[in-house]
Amino acid sequence: MAKQEEPQGQGQTEGSQIQFQSPPGQPPPTPEQVEVMKRQLFAEAQKAGMSVPEFLNKMKEQQMAQQQAQQQAQAQVQQQAQQQPIQPGPPKPEALAVANFLKGQDLKLRTCILNGQRKDMFKVKRALRALQSPAYAKARSKNPLLPEITDRTSLESTFKLLPMSLLALRVSKSDPHEGHNHAPGAHKIKRVKGLWTVKIEQQQECKEELHFVWLYEGAQVKQKLYAFGALALVFTIVMFPLWPMKLRLGVWYLSMGMLGLIGLFFVMAIFRLILFAITMFAVPPGLWLYPNLFEDVGFFDSFRPLWGWQEEKKKGKKKSKQAGSANAGATMAAFTGQPAPATATTSSAAPQIQTSNTQQRHQAPRVEEVFDED
């Protein structure tokens, strides 16, 4: 019905007041229009087999139910807009096209650790810039699978294709002491210096300051070539009895040379240990030959520098420092035959002489990780 029942013109029907009001911005109904609306209302009430007050109450309940349904629908739409469902399955062709385009762009990737594996991490704002660049428009003219971007909403919808297809997921830097529960197995997670250890967030949002991790590896052409090469190498080794005699003899000499290099490596490791043991007492704190030999660095960096002094590790407690220093002084005195240097400490009561090395607290500057926000 093109009428609303609210207070303004009045009429009497079955002992109850019926009031009509025009919609906002329109003039109030005339008495003739009020009479017409009354007759329509009475006819509909009689058709429904109800009295006019009962019919009005039923209409109010229906209007309230419709309003509640509309509010719930709007809330669901907003919730779906904020949190997109991630369903496992093959990625969409549009998502693969967007991922391949972004893989070829300079997103200033940063290596991070996710579940013990190294992954490439990027910032959302750099991906959004790439999707708004002329390169994307040029790529879209060649690849129709790339979605069209006209405004901010379509831009975010295009980027959200990545997490919805499990090609890239939002992550945040994890705290190894989060909750201070230290659950079993938490100590097994080894942190790598200079790299973020991240975790996947449940809420996959699209904000410029957030970070995402690539789970999509691309075409993997190199991996396939490496696998084929490894298979060919294994097959070649298995066919060793069929090799020519000269080739087998050359391989034997090569293996002997490799064994010689391995033996030389062990000799060098033993020699550097003996050298450190000697210099630890002669010129403390001790001299290492190839100090980075067993460190977690590259092959060539393992042999740089040629030598270096032993780095003293800081103890957690001051008492343990003093005890270790006293033991070191006593050990040096026993080997050199000279008394340990004496230090005098004065107080208000009486002078006291302590035969121990002075321990000075040195607070080294800390270098915190700073991530480029540009």
How would you summarize this macromolecular structure in one to three sentences?
This protein has helices at 31-48, 52-82, 93-103, 124-131, 134-142, 152-159, 161-164, 221-238, 245-282, 318-336, and strands spanning 10-13, 16-19, 110-114, 117-123, 168-173, 196-200, 211-214, 287-289, 307-309, 343-345, 352-354. The protein has 374 residues and is of the alpha+beta class. It is found in: Endoplasmic reticulum membrane.
Task: Describe the overall structure.
This protein has 374 residues and is of the alpha+beta class. It has three domains: 10-82, no CATH class; 93-217, no CATH class; 245-309, no CATH class. The protein is 44% helix and 13% strand. The chain has helices at 31-48, 52-82, 93-103, 124-131, 134-142, 152-159, 161-164, 221-238, 245-282, 318-336, and strands at residues 10-13, 16-19, 110-114, 117-123, 168-173, 196-200, 211-214, 287-289, 307-309, 343-345, 352-354. The strands form four sheets. Strands 3-4-7-5-6 form a five-stranded mixed β-barrel. The chain has a two-stranded antiparallel ribbon with strand order 1-2. Strand 3 (110-114) and strand 4 form a beta hairpin. The longest helix has 38 residues, at 245-282. The two termini are 60 Å apart. Residues 1-16, 331-336 and 342-369 have low confidence and may be disordered. Belongs to the SEC62 family. One of its GO terms (biological process) is post-translational protein targeting to membrane, translocation. The chain crosses the membrane at residues 225-245, 251-275. Keywords: Endoplasmic reticulum, Membrane, Protein transport, Translocation, Transmembrane, Transmembrane helix, Transport. It is found in: Endoplasmic reticulum membrane.
